[in-house]
Amino acid sequence: GRLACLGGAVVVFWGCGCAMAVAGRYVRRASHAGSWYTNKEAELDGQLDGWLAEAPPRVAEPVRAIIAPHAGYSYSGPTAAHAYSHMVQAAMERPIERVFVLGPSHHVYLRGCAVSAATECLTPLGPLQVDQQICDELLSSGMFELMSMDVDEDEHSIEMHLPYIAKALHASGCRNVQIIPILVGSLNEEAQARYGQLLAPYLDDPTNFFVVSSDFCHWGERFNYQPHDGAYGRFLPICQYIKALDMEGIQCIETQDAADFNSYLRRTKNTICGRFPISVLLAALAFCKVQFDVQFVAYNQSSKVQAKGDSSVSYASAVVSERSTTPRGGSGGSESDAALQATRHPAAAPADADTGATASGVTRNGPPRV
Whole-angstrom Cα distance, residue 13 to residue 4? Predict the structure, then answer.
């Protein structure tokens, strides 16, 4: 036989002309179950039920995409529920056939994007099948790489959404839904626009649903990010400064202004780890035929920073809905901030003890915050 590379997978061609994949296709394990979230099905199902019950959907228009965090569930699970309750509602209102999951790369440097080579992704709530046909379509564009199993299983930004996706689909009665996991690399603005244009037709299709994975500000010495100046008012406590910093970025996202969002990131250096997946979403919205609104529905912090020695990670949830023909108030910064303040969240975590933290964000007494 001879070896060839087909879409990033190693394939052996035998003399008979038949091909057999020997690498690049695998079942992705739930590699963060048991640490970042429980690996016990009943316990996980109960946790998600409880968080979803505390986060009823607030947006009436059809929801087609969400932005949600990807930290350990004891930290970000309650905030993520405010996005996923809208996914449950959306799946009850219309058939969803596939879910695109866009997550940032924390461990490997990518100049573009990569799709998973897995045939299915395991979760404690059951497996999710990967849509091989759509992955092949994306690969055929020449703009995507193929993830190796090690890269796929090391990355948490996509996996942390899979149990919630499985739960939302089960709760709504959806069956045979497939997922398209996409790892988004470090993209300049031109590349963001190219990927957005490519993905826009998929976002226009109402049988698709998009999940964008991101935490917001990572503040603290271990993140090498500790701004606290007069940009948002003199004598503002650090935790309120962090919120004001995040809210400025949130306003850029709600107004769907990709240029302003990129300018904001360059100016503030805010450590929004999912800034590239969010930017691709904003670029896609600009190319979509359907008109959409973006509205943030929840905001939280892992702890309230009071002093330079403290640290925290911010979590936020947003929904992307079809624009209503009925006029409604704008979602500018002050209105958004008031809405987020009015949203009551369950306690996401005990006060953060930095003495138990490692450089990777994993605490000795609990799951990671990032």
Answer: 8
